Each structure stands twice: as structure tokens, then as C-alpha cells.
């Protein structure tokens, strides 16, 4: 498995996700400015009761805050779908 995804899963455990899907989308971005090697692009779907009552921007902040220790370490871009269990 991808070590960055493993670390992301561990760090996101604090959000108590009932569903967490993370895919490495790096191959599609090889050569683009800022990530010449194409590494560090991920797509995520996360479902958590902790998102209840939060707007989309707040949910994304919660995810980025949980992943803050990964910045600059193989993590360049993240596409997030964040929902509550009621929204699935």
C-alpha cells in the first residue's frame, strides 16, 4: 500500500470516520507546475459524524488540520468529499 495513504488514514482517525476512501491520483498530474514528478495528489471521500452542523469549508479545514503534519512530505493536493452519515 501507499505509505502516504497509510499515514493519512492514521491521522484522520481523530475524525472518527465511518467511511474513508483515499486514492492516489498522482499519475494524472505528472509534469504539472508545482509537482513536476506528479506525486502527492489524492482524492478522498470521508464520512464522519463530526461533520454534523459544519459547512463544507469547515469540514475541509478539519481534514486539512488533521493532515497538517504531512504538509511538505509527499502531500501536494487533495480533492475532498466530506459528508455526515445522514448525507450518504
From TrEMBL:
UniProt signal peptide: none
Stretches assigned to coiled coil: none
GO BP terms in the entry: iron-sulfur cluster assembly
Q: Which Pfam families match?
A: BolA
Q: Which Gene3D superfamilies match?
A: BolA-like (3.30.300.90)
Alphabetized InterPro entries for the sequence: BolA, BolA-like_sf
Q: Which family does it belong to?
A: Belongs to the BolA/IbaG family.
Official protein name in the record: BolA family protein
Amino acid at each position: 500500500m501507499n505509505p502516504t495513504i497509510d499515514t493519512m488514514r492514521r491521522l484522520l482517525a481523530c475524525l472518527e470516520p465511518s467511511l474513508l476512501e483515499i486514492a492516489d491520483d498522482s499519475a494524472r498530474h505528472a509534469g504539472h507546475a508545482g509537482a513536476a514528478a506528479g506525486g502527492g495528489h489524492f482524492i478522498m471521500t470521508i464520512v464522519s459524524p463530526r461533520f454534523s452542523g459544519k459547512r463544507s469549508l469547515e469540514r475541509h479545514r478539519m481534514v486539512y488540520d488533521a493532515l497538517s503534519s504531512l504538509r511538505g512530505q509527499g502531500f501536494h493536493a487533495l480533492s475532498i468529499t466530506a459528508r455526515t452519515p445522514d448525507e450518504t
